Amino acid sequence: MTTLKHSSITISAIALLAAVGSVQAGEITHLQSLGGDFAVANDINDFGDVVGQSAMAGGLGVVATRWDASHMPANLGMLNGSVLSEAYAINNNGEIVGFSEDASVNRSATLWDGRGGMVNVHSAIGSSGASIPWDINDNGVITGQASINPGFSKGFVWDQVNPVVVAGTTPGFMGGANYGINNAGALVGSAFFFGDPDDATMAIPDGRGGYEYRDIAPIGFEFSVATEINNNGMVVGHTTFGSTTTGWNAVIYTPDDRDPVQVLGTLPGLDTSESLDVNDSGMIVGYAWDGQGNGIPPRAWVWVDGEMYDLNDLLGDRPEFEILSRATGVNNNGDIVGFGRLLDGNTGAFLIEGFTPPAGCVADINGDGDLNFFDVSAFLEAFSRQDPIADMNGDFDFNFFDVSDFLSAFSAGCP
Hints:
The protein is mostly beta strands and about 425 residues long. It has helices at about 5-20, 120-125, 375-385, 400-410, and strands at about 30, 35-45, 50-55, 60-65, 75, 85-90, 95-100, 105-110, 120, 130-135, 140-145, 155-160, 165, 175-180, 185-190, 200-205, 210-215, 225-230, 235-240, 250-255, 260-265, 270-280, 285-290, 300-305, 305-310, 320-330, 335-340, 345-350. It has 2 domains: about 5-20 and about 360-410, no CATH class; about 85-315 and about 320-335, Neuraminidase (6 Propeller).
């Protein structure tokens, strides 16, 4: 068994420590606005088309915006008589839904058909009050919330051909909204009574033109919202039930009445989190924020395989963004969109292409997430004790090759 003098190892490691800079863990694209000082991205399809809202140059207004795969922004326009618009969702056929708003802040559901045309969904479904379409599936079925029947707005479904259907809001509830729809037509959202917190809702087509309503809301006086459902039936959202903090937490809703949610938790220092989107692989995106009013800015996150990652760890020395505030959409390629605060204080849209979880960092011997002299010291101590953690090549021997592998891993840095 070969050993080396600690001094020579230390000298080599310290030299490497001085040479290693900050680790770049990913690439973030700043999606440019239409010339103004504001932009947000809300959704992305599997072809890399992004939709949201941005400001035009010269203070000419804020409009629904589409960024194509080359990241170029395009003005989607708005309904006649409107003063602003915003796009919320895009399907894989390029159909986009959002709203147009008039000077009295009345919102009208709007469809951009992907061929340059625009449809006044508000008029087509006969809404008497505000209408908002939150999602559209690949079959062109639109869902959201609208005042179609007397009373509060409720969840609606419209397939662009047949008459609108009021569905999704649990029968007997006063009002509600559908926030997500998958390609099978399953709806998720929330509903409410006066005096009670919102309840997460789910409705499944019954094959006879109606819906089967499934109770996914945790029992008790709990706030819960379902925000999206993927094509495999995974439902995400947020609830106070089982929260690890004083606020509500992002969750996956389960079909188990005894254990109705899988709590995803939140980011360190922030007590509240919300899930906003999920792809077909179960990658979830959202944001965490400070519900106690301590002035801590919100941060965007992604959840993969049981682990929540702060997307701000990808910033490195990116020159545009100060913080990534909210992750709003994720496609089946692992591309993530959202928005954050730019260094000039304005709000900017971002795109992260092909996010993959960081690999384990073998050189982080003390497990504190940083590579520094303490890891060098910990390796030396482990090496002298012949601790298995220092057997870097796994050959059950402690020799120069372990030292060389450690120095290489330390030089490469952590993902």
